[in-house]
Amino acid sequence: MIEISSLVFINFFESSLREKIANFDEAISGIYYYFIRLSC
Questions:
Q1: CA angle 10, 16, 5 (to 5 degrees)
Q2: Taking the model in full, what pTM does it have?
Q3: What is residue 1's three-state secondary structure?
Q4: DSSP secondary structure string, 1-37?
Q5: Per residue in 1-35, pLDDT tens?
């Protein structure tokens, strides 16, 4: 029973982590685009 719950927790943690990374990627590209606009 404990193994199943830990697996579910790990699954949930990984999926939320992937979402955070995706959002981070978007933020980075947004900032990058902003700097390119500034330098031109």
A1: 25
A2: 0.49
A3: coil
A4: -HHHHHHHHHHHHHHHHHHHHHHHHHHHHHHHHHHHH
A5: 678 888 888 898 899 999 999 999 999 999 999 99
